[in-house]
Design goal:
Layout (H helix, E strand, L loop, with lengths): L2 E15 L3 E8 L3 E7 L18 E8 L5 E10 L8 H17 L7 H16 L1 H4 L2 H14 L18 E5 L4 E4 L7 E2 L2 H12 L11 H18 L11
Parallel strand pairs: 3-5
Antiparallel strand pairs: 1-2, 1-4, 2-3, 4-5, 6-7, 6-8
């Protein structure tokens, strides 16, 4: 049914369209990811100003007609996350966080937890990019996204047989850690990487565990990427390098 939709939203990405328009991919708390056209936004005197840019958190009024593409009729800024835009690592971290949300949650299914998790991540990056724009932060964020998507890896015991005492590897196909008897095509997962993943899932994002060594981070990232590839049939961009 045609009508206006009022919603908060975070702009995930934008695409130029025609001579003066722009297509927005926006994540909302109660409509999931939506696509909308902002008409005339690229004109010098656009009434939207510079608000319809990636990573802005906005109050939006969208016109919903017969098309899947909504139309932006009003936009008010809640938070532009301005500080992260002046920091290369913060900007890169925001782009990767939004890309991960866009890939994992591409439907219009509502998921308020994902919206608030993304808003929290952007707030942390904006507060202090030097502290939060790290690979450890990105991996903690992605683990929480997997939890929200119902794809959280099994970390409490072997995903194949349930053994809690002798886990030594990780299998994306099995969906979690595995023991020596069930490892099959698993790769080694050190205790440091295992502990980091457990702590990252169990703590609030603002209290994410300190960065472990490079080897542990590489193993944790591989576990996340393999889980997504095997169970969501998607490939995520690599996390930050620092």
């Amino acid at each position: 049914m045609a009508g206006s939709l009022k919603t908060e939203g975070i702009v995930l990405r934008t695409l130029r369209f025609g001579e003066a328009d722009r297509i927005l991919h926006v994540y909302t708390p109660h409509r999931g990811r939506v696509s909308a056209i902002a008409k005339g936004v690229r004109r010098a005197r656009s009434r939207f100003g510079g608000r319809l840019e990636p990573f802005f958190r906005l109050n939006l009024v969208l016109y919903e007609g017969r098309s899947d593409l909504l139309t932006v009729t009003s936009a008010e800024t809640i938070d532009p996350f301005a500080r992260l835009r002046g920091d290369a690592a913060g900007l890169d971290g925001a782009a990767r966080a939004c890309d991960a949300v866009s890939r994992l949650f591409e439907s219009s299914d509502p998921n308020p937890a994902v919206f608030h998790l993304l808003a929290n991540e952007l707030s942390l990056l904006d507060r202090d990019p030097s502290v939060h724009a790290t690979k450890a932060n990105q991996l903690a964020f992605r683990l929480k996204l997997l939890l929200a998507a119902g794809l959280a890896p099994q970390l409490g015991g072997c995903a194949s047989c349930g053994d809690r005492e002798h886990v030594s590897g990780f299998s994306g196909a099995a969906g979690g850690v595995v023991c020596g008897s069930c490892e099959g095509s698993a790769f080694p997962l050190d205790e440091e990487a295992h502990s980091f993943m457990v702590d990252a899932l169990g703590r609030p994002l603002a209290e994410a565990p300190a960065s472990p060594g490079d080897r542990a981070l590489r193993q944790a990232e591989r576990a996340i990427l393999d889980t997504v590839e095997h169970h969501a049939h998607l490939r995520l961009r690599p996390a930050l390098t620092r």
